[in-house]
């Protein structure tokens, strides 16, 4: 029924857009409708027929694709940052060893490789006591420690680290 009192011959009910029928009338409600659509609620778009509005269908599909691609890229970026922080030191040391091995093999003469000042028989290395204890215990748990190589050195190291083995426990 029109404002002048006449009745329309069309079977459709025509209602002017308002805040209750169209969430895209105001910027705040349109952002909320986009958020709802992001969570899977397409109720804000239920006022339009998908068959009569192919542009709407294209926009919905593009929105879905771009959001999935964006979220996947965000996840990949966060994971790569987390992995990169852990692997920086390890990759640096691995690259350094490869470069040093190449230099020793290809750029040094045989008499230079025999110099004791450059290649000592014993290399001193500083390591944290707690880290060594943890690694030795892990090697013992994995049965990698109980080999016949360097038995005196291993026993001395166990005494320094204050780690008792099953053999030491049975002797006491």
UniProtKB/TrEMBL annotation:
Protein name as annotated: Ion transport domain-containing protein
Organism: Rhizophagus irregularis
Record-annotated membrane-spanning stretches: 56-79
Top-level lineage group: Eukaryota
UniProt keyword terms in alphabetical order: Membrane, Transmembrane, Transmembrane helix
